[in-house]
Amino acid sequence: MTGVLASTGCAGPGYFMQATAGHWKLMRQRQDVAEIMADPEADPDLVGRLERVMLILGFAEQELGLPPGDNYASYVSTGRDAVVWNVVATPEFSLTPKKWCFPVAGCVPYRGYFEEAKARKAADRLTGKGMDVALTPAAAYSTLGWFRDPVLDTMLSGSDTQLASILIHELAHRRLYLKGQTEFSESYARFVERAGVEKWLASHGSGNELAGWQARTRAAAGFNRMLLSARRELGSLYAAGLPDSELRTAKVRVLDELRQVYRETRDRDWAGRDYFRDFMSRDLNNAHLALLRSYEGGVCAFAALYEKANGDFFEFHRLAAERAALDRDAVKAWLARPCAAIAPASDL
Q1: pLDDT band for position 338 (50/70/90)?
Q2: CA–CA separation, 23 vs 121, rounded Å?
Q3: d(CA 232, CA 314)
Q4: DSSP secondary structure, 291-302, as one string
């Protein structure tokens, strides 16, 4: 997810103040990346990670058509595990997420907080209203070109592959973002991330890293099918007009079955690799499944577009921009075409 600044009219002055204060606090802590890398007393591990960032950014610009512009020329140490905590909420018997509106991103189905305590307080308020709530930490956020985004220590804590994944995803948002149309923007960024990281690893990673990424991508495709199946079953239940007590019982059953299918698939197909342990260890509810279509619903459409571009990212971005220029209903229809009809053999 991408953290954004809210408008007072849409999200309230309290939220606006914390978002603005959180962002500017980071901006005041920026250090110049070039100066850090030239400092003989700088932490060598940090310098090495920043060198990797620069290498990935150069590759993204030259090979993926994702110029960083003036971004990632500064560094901020937050000392935290996440930079933003995103809150998603749905009614107890609905998969339609509550939306909040922002001046930069338009109306989106989540709300980001720079302080975990405030995010938890907001989540508790929504839970108190009887809503299903998910609270998700994020290692990065984008201002979508409004400010010069820094490299954050939260982006550097994982592997090189994870770093490339974060940077490519955020650069994709800067390249093309359709205001107020989360499914288009996030599906586009998710596809660019997956295809871009695979291309990066093919030229800069080891054979094991590339094979590992491809295995995880295939697992992710299967995992998403699992989640979509559970989501469809819940949607059918909620549309059936059953009494609340019956809906609650059936909801628990569907989510328990999802956990069982996950365990069986993990052990049978993924050699016991618990790729999605963090997600599945949560107390799952509607909110955890609500954004699945937003992030994955159009990925197959973009995979077909990439194939049409013959794997040329520059042509792919041009074609994606053409789709973005369509009217809202046409964009929605294009994204909703069944995967089997547009990308029958794609694992992406």
Answers
A1: low
A2: 19
A3: 36
A4: THHHHHTTHHHH
